[in-house]
Design goal:
Distance between the termini: 53 Å
Helix content: 40-55%
Shape: globular
Radius of gyration: 25 Å
């Protein structure tokens, strides 16, 4: 019996047999190659790959369909495909050309160590690249014909791996590498498949066919468990099933406190992948959509690409309101060229400050958002607004975009609600100024507001005791915002990591807040805590 430690990708506890998924190394031909023939072979392979991706998207839940759409769109990306074409023109075979370019692009995203979302996009590129090379090399794309449920083990799992296995045959997932934020992990969570990542290569050496207890909630697995460990696992599985049934029962209950006050639960999301998951977990809308995460390094998405992203999110929300935060590159760190010099500073040109220094890019985003708002309820908020000058400048851009869209004759929603994300103490202290100038809603961002109120980074472990999202100072600022919103009769939501904590959420409830936005996995826990609390 041996215990391996990893990181939770999707919680749960299962007992079963391991089936290792191997990826034999690709062997490319030596040529000589005829560029025109290779180009034609590549075009044919892309058609086959896109058809296969469409079929998988058809079998996927709405929350996962965007993953396969992204992969399909990569095969139409002009910059990506031009590099592949250049390699082919230089005499490289189509399969090797695709492999080289795909690995280079994936490595570029994987190098963004402080951005797990962009890192998981690197896996998507490897996934679709591997699909094309397998087609060109006449290799199988669906290699696991399982006749019984197993725990899949691999160095790294691709999103399409989970659709290459018959439905209901995956008990759990164990990977030597990978991230809990990967698209494979997102799919696993939506399918309630327990999984852990980063257990190390040693586990893979001789795991195939052996029994494992996978405790994904604790981030560990036990290879070859003894009888006592097996019995403990079986007992825990029964208890966890009972607890999950109790928590899931919250879905059917009204969002109402013990003394009868109604409240709203929203989700913090980064794209259509987890918007759908959030709706299934009981969210009544998206309280924070981090728009920066759709951006690729060095590639500013045009208006049509952004429009498709926002409409995909609205479709995944199924008629519920989506609140989009405009670009905040200093926080999200998604574009390789967005945080040079002072822009990389936590107190530098983040959020609306950065956007107002790049008006063409800001106008593109606003136009895309107002066009997308014709497809469903959508709100837009500006982050890092400090004073009324910031707000007025941003709304001048909005007015400019309305005029331009009208001149273009494009369908758009002229009355999109615009609001402020309050993450700077100065803005909280003057919240009534924004309502006087037409602000339609407030969102309190506890992550940044706590940092700037207490002068401490939430990433600085040695100063962690200063980072207090429900301190007396924070409560005073929050109360000011709630009071200003009440006087102006506009909605106010509180979001951030702190809201996913039951004690904090209850304290925010007592400050007068009735709208809470958090990570999807915290929704049911916070719902139970608020239902058990008195609002007054």
């Amino acid at each position: 019996m041996k215990v391996y430690k990893g990181f939770t990708a999707s919680p749960g506890l299962v007992l079963g047999q391991v089936s290792r998924l191997d990826r034999p190394p690709l062997v490319f031909g030596e040529g000589p190659f005829h560029p025109e023939q290779e180009k034609q072979a590549l075009e044919d392979a892309i058609k086959v790959a896109q058809q296969e991706l469409d079929e998988m998207a058809g079998r996927a839940a709405p929350s996962e369909q965007a993953i396969f759409l992204f992969q399909s769109m990569m095969l139409e990306d002009e910059g990506f495909m031009n590099e592949v074409a250049f390699q082919i023109k230089a005499g490289v075979g189509a399969a090797e050309a695709m492999d080289r370019v795909g690995r280079r692009y994936a490595a570029q995203l994987a190098a963004m160590k402080d951005n797990t979302y962009m890192q998981l996009r690197s896996v998507d590129i490897l996934d679709v690249t591997q699909r094309i090379t397998n087609i060109l090399c006449h290799r199988l794309r669906s290699w696991l014909a399982l006749d019984h449920p197993v725990i899949l083990a691999s160095d790294l799992l691709m999103p399409t791996d989970l659709f290459s296995v018959p439905a209901g045959r995956i008990l759990g997932l164990i990977t030597a590498e990978g991230s809990g934020q990967s698209h494979a992990a997102i799919i696993a969570r939506s399918l309630n498949i327990p999984g852990i990542t980063q257990v190390g290569e040693d586990f893979l050496k001789d795991c195939d066919g052996r029994e494992v207890i996978l405790n994904a909630t604790e981030g560990e697995c036990i290879l070859d468990p003894d009888a006592a460990a097996r019995q403990r696992a079986i007992t825990c599985i029964c208890e966890m099933q009972r607890q999950n049934e109790e928590l899931n029962a919250q879905l059917e209950l009204p969002n109402r406190t013990r003394d009868g006050e109604e409240f709203e639960l929203l989700a913090n999301c980064f794209g259509p992948e987890d918007v759908g998951t959030a709706m299934e977990s009981g969210a009544s809308g998206v309280g924070l959509l981090r728009s920066s995460y759709m951006m690729m390094p060095g590639h500013a998405m045009d208006e049509q690409e952004q429009y498709l992203f926002y409409t995909s999110c609205l479709a995944a929300a199924r008629g519920r309101t989506v609140t989009v935060r405009t670009f905040d590159f200093g926080a999200d760190r998604t574009m390789a060229d967005a945080y040079q010099g002072v822009q990389s500073s936590k107190l530098g040109l983040r959020g609306i400050r950065s956007s107002l220094r790049n008006l063409p890019q800001m106008a593109v985003q606003i136009c895309a958002l107002m066009r997308a708002a014709t497809k469903g309820p959508l709100r837009v908020m500006f982050p890092m607004v400090t004073d009324i000058e910031d707000w007025d400048s941003a709304m001048q851009v909005v007015d400019h975009c309305r005029r331009k869209l009208t001149e273009r004759g494009v369908e758009f929603e002229p009355d999109v609600p615009f609001g402020v994300m309050l993450s700077v103490p100065a803005a909280c202290l003057t919240a009534e100024d924004f309502t006087a100038h037409g602000c339609r809603f407030f969102v309190i961002g506890t992550n940044d507001l706590t940092q700037y109120t207490h002068a401490v980074s939430r990433e600085l472990a040695i100063a962690e005791h200063y980072y207090r999202p429900a301190s007396p100072a924070m409560k005073k600022l929050i109360a000011m915002v709630v009071d200003a919103a009440r006087k102006a009769d506009i909605p106010v939501t509180i979001c951030g990591l702190a809201v996913g904590n039951a004690v904090n959420a209850t304290q925010y409830l007592h400050l007068g807040l009735r709208s809470f936005s958090m990570s999807p996995q915290n929704l049911l826990t916070i719902k139970k805590a608020l239902r058990d609390a008195d609002a007054e």
